[in-house]
């Protein structure tokens, strides 16, 4: 559950499983993530998100150690231009309470990996990969990524109704974007309908590169690692076998498996 207050503060509630205790027991809690005056806060509550009142919420918040979620800016990276809300979307790190404990840098490492991938894409752009403008920097650390603001997500677009022809075009766009990304030696590793936007020309654009890594690198996050126990490293197969199949199942298009089955059936008929 996410909401924004009247003064622009942003709050996110997520039900999270605590790590197993010494007896292997797992409990759930509500993790609170917040940005107030562009400063990150986190909190932990025992109540369900729907049961939290404003007083409890505010009392639970504590500042996030910057090193947990904001990596150091490196000189070879690009600094973002002045923010234009009509053009730019600022992507701030997402995190849970457990991510923000002293000494933990998992989120910061994910941000750093995403910046490295986006910097390479910026040098070798493609219309079906997100447009990246640079890093928002404060006190020498990356606080947000400045990306192009797209008018729609594919999920919202499809919710309003989508023709078979348009769905096929989206699938074609996504596959083209994947092949270009692979030509750079990178795999996205988290291709799914939630990570696709639609641009001003009604073309599908792949976004969310926080799981993107060079081939063979151990995965840090991404649905492919959860879906296939063999998919613990960055690979083309994560995008082409799992990712594209996920897209095809979401869109009203003839899947590659259906095409292959039809072709095999036709071949059998011709040979008999």
From TrEMBL:
Bias type Polar residues, positions: 1-15
Superkingdom of source: Eukaryota
One Gene Ontology molecular-function label: ATP binding
SUPFAM superfamilies named in the record: Protein kinase-like (PK-like)
Signal sequence extent: none
InterPro entries: Kinase-like_dom_sf, Prot_kinase_dom
Domain spans labelled Protein kinase: 1-272
Region entry Disordered, spans: 1-25
Name recorded for this polypeptide: Protein kinase domain-containing protein
Lineage, uppermost ranks: Eukaryota, Fungi, Dikarya, Ascomycota, Pezizomycotina
